[in-house]
């Protein structure tokens, strides 16, 4: 359909004629995501006329056709001005049933399809327009969404599709606007509200205060339930982003423990396919990272039952799932920073805070060392995969993998080097100022002897840099005269001097603080230490 013709028809205001024209336009442009720039002004005009048309008392079928056209046009980021105005946003919010009013009384149940289309239009507009995001804050759109969730926490009149787009709009608002995120978190008690919504979505049954009835081999979540649950998890991630960095009182701790119990159920529940299960579990892990560490003890509190993974009398089903989840992400090897670092951080902090978790993970990831012939990074065991990450090009991935293994070693340098090799461990040790030995700041129980007979026998022959037993290489200077040795030594010194003067390399040494520093600074620190000792000796004399 010609755009000029559609503009003329919209100006007539005849509902039946306009509806037929819009249906034809929608059919023609249904799959259109890229628009002709030359027609941009005419599309803006159509948008303005559509908003005016929607303000009239229209039949639901005509409203639906108009909103479908708005949804199609709102895909164009350069033609959003008609839909991003305050009047347009208020009109769309009213049609979606989420317009904020101070005192909401009984309201007419809107047509479900109209509500869904209006929500889709709002999602497109908010996502693509900064101006629309600002208007959404001004008209308190998040308050309208919360108000609607409170009075209708179950399935909405518009059906499951409607509830999904309400949650999607709430996610976009909290992701794109920090002020909206804070409002939902603090003023509107969003964590409690969304936790209740997640509980209703999953239709949970509670066995104890912090224990959900979960059947490991039960039926998987339906697709629409998974979609809604993932949107809720994403919103909760936004509003709890800074929770782990601040102290929580007793009331908040109880709320987060309640949420952690639900997240435990999510980890033990599958969706309708392996890919969606991985995605569902990924959002669950992301949210668990945000929760206070003291609240994660509920992951281990459920009673041990037949079929459960038991360790030290504790139920380790959740930790086992997280370990399997991490292993699958390692094997996939794609976007490790986004997909792997959250679960690594979660396991690291849980191991640092909960002794049983650390001992269980150490038994699985760092079992007693028997293979001393291969490098630590060679092989397909979990230890080998994680050690390979310690030299990854991405700094975050490299640091997370090294920190996880270091915590499993109780932050003991010698044990860390034993399992990873000094070459792989050097990066973390240099960053922590532990190149000279010692141990980290964590508080752990006394060391126990876990060396196997194979390791004890091979220990004198293990190269600490590579972490394996290596064949002794012939002495390259064997058979040389003293003059030849001196010549080779001076040649090597000359090469290093040239590289240093041309700033290709910078000689480094371990300073008094255990960190790598330029060699001239290291020598100066050592000289100062010697001078201090000399002065103290003179004072004693």
How large is the radius of gyration?
A: 32 Å
Total of DSSP H or I helical runs spanning 4+ residues: 25
* Mean pLDDT across every amino acid position: 86
Number of strands: 8
Q: Biggest sheet: strands, sense, closure?
A: 2 strands, antiparallel
The CA-CA distance between the termini, in Å, is: 104 Å
- Pairing-aware structural class of the strands and helices? mainly alpha
Shape designation: elongated
Strand order of the largest sheet: 1-2
Helix content: 55-70%
Instruction: Provide the low-confidence segments as ranges.
Output: 154-158, 537-541
Content of β-strand? under 5%
Please summarize what this structure is.
The protein is mainly alpha-helical and 541 residues long. It has 25 helices and 8 strands.
What does this structure look like?
Helix content is 60%, strand content 4%. The protein is built from 25 helices and 8 strands. Helix 2 (15-29) packs parallel to helix 4 (60-73). It has helices at 3-12, 15-29, 40-54, 60-73, 86-96, 112-128, 130-138, 141-151, 160-176, 178-187, 190-202, 223-239, 250-267, 274-290, 317-332, 336-339, 341-353, 355-365, 382-389, 395-408, 413-420, 422-432, 453-458, 482-501, 519-540, and strands at residues 206-208, 211-212, 310-311, 314-315, 462-463, 468-469, 508-510, 516-518. The relative contact order is 0.04. The chain is elongated. Strands 1-2 form a two-stranded antiparallel sheet. It has 541 residues and is mainly α. The model is unreliable at 154-158 and 537-541 (pLDDT under 50).
């Amino acid at each position: 359909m010609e755009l000029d013709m559609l503009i003329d028809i919209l100006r007539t205001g005849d509902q039946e004629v306009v509806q037929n024209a819009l249906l034809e336009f929608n059919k023609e442009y249904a799959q259109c995501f890229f628009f002709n720039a030359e027609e941009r002004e005419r599309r803006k005009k159509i948008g303005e006329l559509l908003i005016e048309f929607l303000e009239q008392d229209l039949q639901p079928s005509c409203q639906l056709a108009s909103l479908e056209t708005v949804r199609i046009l709102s895909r164009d980021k350069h033609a959003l001005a008609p839909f991003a105005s305050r009047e347009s946003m208020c009109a769309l919010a009213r049609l979606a049933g989420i317009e904020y009013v101070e005192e909401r009384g009984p309201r007419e149940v809107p047509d479900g399809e109209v509500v869904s289309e209006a929500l889709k239009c709002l999602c497109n507009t908010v996502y693509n327009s900064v101006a629309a995001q600002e208007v959404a804050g001004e008209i308190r759109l998040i308050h309208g969404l919360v108000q609607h969730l409170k009075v209708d926490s179950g399935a909405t009149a518009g059906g499951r599709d409607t509830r999904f787009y309400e949650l999607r709009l709430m996610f976009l608002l909290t992701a794109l606007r920090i002020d909206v995120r804070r409002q939902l978190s603090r003023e509107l008690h969003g964590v409690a509200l969304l936790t209740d919504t997640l509980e209703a979505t999953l239709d949970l049954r509670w066995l104890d205060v912090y224990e959900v009835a979960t059947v490991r081999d039960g039926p998987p979540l339906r697709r629409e339930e998974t979609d809604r649950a993932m949107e809720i998890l994403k919103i909760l991630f936004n509003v709890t982003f800074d929770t782990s960095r601040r102290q929580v009182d007793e009331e908040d701790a109880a709320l987060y423990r309640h949420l952690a119990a639900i997240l435990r159920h999510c980890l033990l529940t599958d969706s309708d396919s392996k890919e969606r299960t991985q995605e569902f579990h990924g959002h669950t892990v992301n949210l668990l990272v945000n929760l206070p560490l003291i609240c994660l003890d509920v992951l281990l509190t459920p009673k041990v039952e037949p079929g459960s993974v038991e360790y030290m009398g504790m139920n380790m089903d959740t930790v086992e799932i997280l370990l399997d989840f991490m292993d699958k992400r390692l094997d996939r090897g794609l976007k490790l920073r986004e997909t792997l670092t959250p679960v690594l951080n979660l396991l690291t902090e849980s191991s640092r805070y909960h002794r049983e978790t650390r001992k269980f993970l150490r038994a699985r990831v760092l079992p007693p060392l028997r293979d001393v012939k291969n490098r630590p990074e060679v092989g397909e065991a979990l230890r080998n995969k994680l050690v390979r990450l310690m030299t990854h090009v991405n700094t975050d991935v490299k640091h997370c993998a090294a920190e996880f293994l270091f915590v499993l070693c109780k932050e003991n340098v010698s044990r860390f080097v034993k399992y990873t090799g000094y070459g792989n461990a050097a990066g973390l040790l240099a960053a922590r100022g532990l190149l000279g030995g010692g141990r980290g700041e964590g508080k752990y129980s006394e060391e126990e002897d876990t060396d196997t007979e194979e390791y004890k026998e091979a220990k004198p022959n293990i190269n600490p840099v590579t972490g394996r037993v290596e064949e002794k290489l012939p002495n390259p200077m064997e058979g040389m005269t003293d003059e030849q040795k001196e010549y080779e030594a001076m040649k090597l010194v000359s090469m290093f001097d040239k590289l240093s003067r041309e700033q290709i390399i910078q000689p480094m040494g371990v300073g008094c603080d255990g960190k790598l520093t330029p060699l001239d600074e290291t020598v100066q620190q050592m000289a100062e230490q010697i001078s201090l000792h000399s002065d103290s000796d003179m004072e004693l004399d």
